[in-house]
Predict the 3D structure of the following.
Amino acid sequence: MKKRTKPIATNEIKLIVYDFDGVMTDNRVIVDENGKESVIVHRGDGYGVRMIRDKLKIHQIILSTEENSVVKRRAEKLNIQVIHGVEVKEKVLRAYCDENNFKLSQVLFIGNDLNDLEAMQLCGKTACPSDAEPEIRLYVDYVFQAGGGFGVVRELYRMLSEKSGDNDEC
């Protein structure tokens, strides 16, 4: 399968929407004997989120099907909004953009699984981790070299900062 790597420029993007599981994680969950769930995230993604927000001034949210405290806690640590427990992502995304004055054409959606596809189809730009589902990899504008949970957001920051001319150390 051919990797799609159409570059994404900073001036085209006003909002980045991340799926959580499979983008910010490797899509696995650790469940202890008490049923408590944990995931592993990439610290470099935290840096990427901060730099995208503070240096590039692009708004970011997490939009997740999972309603789980892990997603909420990670979003709090990253200081970005999370909308989780979402059954129909495209409906919620449309409403969010309407309420916050974002044009869908200026949204970059980063997802990895089939439940992201309809929301992705609304957006001006799309991307996914290298280990996303085949149907997603065929659809998106850009496939990251990193797999989910292994620095996708950090790689995004590098790409956007190079395109914006703000090629700070990343």
Strands lie at 15-18, 30-31, 37-38, 59-64, 81-84, 107-110, 125-128, 142-143. Residues 152-164 form the longest helix (13 residues). The domain at 12-162 is CATH 3.40.50.1000 (Rossmann fold). The first strand starts at residue 15 and ends at 18.
